[in-house]
Design a protein that fits this description.
By secondary structure, this protein is an alpha+beta fold. The protein contains 2 helices and 14 strands; from the N terminus they run βααβββββββββββββ. The relative contact order is 0.13.
């Protein structure tokens, strides 16, 4: 028995990728932010021991906190961008291990990686927030949260390179795999900010009509919609539901209903077919 795990590190139809933040750009921002932190610390030290009015003290604290938070976020972003394309770490990867924790010797990079990195099954992902496996076919879809351009559904393939940080969305690089489906970052009925939950509709007992069987449901965290794709007919996305409050996961229950988890208000909702 084997199991697959993930390491977490945008418009219907695919278009050529746009520009994405380069390592050089992030490094420059990182240096500017470090300078901002140093200036904020100097400002705080300059008034150390003095009585300050509330507004001045609060402004100093907020400046320092903001600069420190930006520094942390940029440091993490740089680490992931530099790591997704290498076999020397587990960031931005899909891992495959046996149920006893050992690493299968037929993993695609077993002979070229070392140590625990032999567990790498696919690479080049940014934030593979969730994935789902279709029960009757073994087909795997990976929901990869993008940078600032595209949200991706990637088909799981052993040894695949999904492109990050060299590409986001569709790519013309023959050594990298374009997403099965991607939608644009933004607002509206077909855009969003983060692809989260995803689930294939293949329950033992179908509660939805037959046309839904085999469909893939996916949700966006910011836009609050749920859409579906029939992979057997292509990659056209069909509206399904809206108004969810920060959905983070989707599951199909044994009763054939679709359940979604809302992070913002901490609730689980059930969707069933009634007409």
């Amino acid at each position: 028995m084997q199991r697959i795990t993930n390491q977490r590190t945008r418009a219907q139809g695919l278009e050529p990728m746009g520009s994405i933040p380069t390592t050089e750009t992030i490094t420059q921002k990182l240096e500017r932010t470090r300078a901002e932190v140093r200036r904020a610390i100097t400002d705080v030290q300059a008034v150390e021991g003095r009585f300050l009015d509330y507004e001045t003290a609060d402004a100093l604290q907020r400046t320092l906190s903001t600069a420190a938070r930006n520094l942390e976020e940029l440091t993490i972003t740089l680490a992931v961008m530099e790591s997704s394309q290498t076999l020397n770490n587990l960031l931005g990867k899909i891992l495959r291990i046996n149920s006893d924790g050992t690493i299968p010797t037929d993993n695609p990079f077993y002979a070229t990686a070392a140590g625990r990195n032999r567990a790498i099954w696919a690479l080049g992902l940014r934030v593979p927030f969730t994935f789902a496996i279709q029960s009757d076919t073994g087909r795997m879809f990976i929901n990869d949260v993008g940078g600032h351009l595209w949200e991706e559904i990637n088909e799981g393939v052993a040894g695949a390179n999904y492109g990050w940080d060299e590409s986001e969305g569709a790519t013309t690089n023959p050594g990298q795999q374009s997403p099965f489906f991607a939608y644009e970052n933004g607002t509206g009925d077909t855009r969003g900010c983060a692809i989260t939950g995803g689930a294939f509709y293949n329950p033992q007992t179908a509660q939805f009509p037959a046309e839904y069987v085999g469909n893939y449901f996916f949700a966006d965290y910011c836009s609050g919609w749920i859409r579906r794709i029939d992979p057997a007919s292509g990659n056209a996305a069909i509206p399904f539901a809206s108004g969810a409050s920060n959905p983070v996961d989707l599951k199909v229950g044994p009763d054939g209903s679709l359940y979604y988890l809302e992070r913002n208000i901490g609730t689980i909702h059930k969707i069933k077919f009634t007409n």
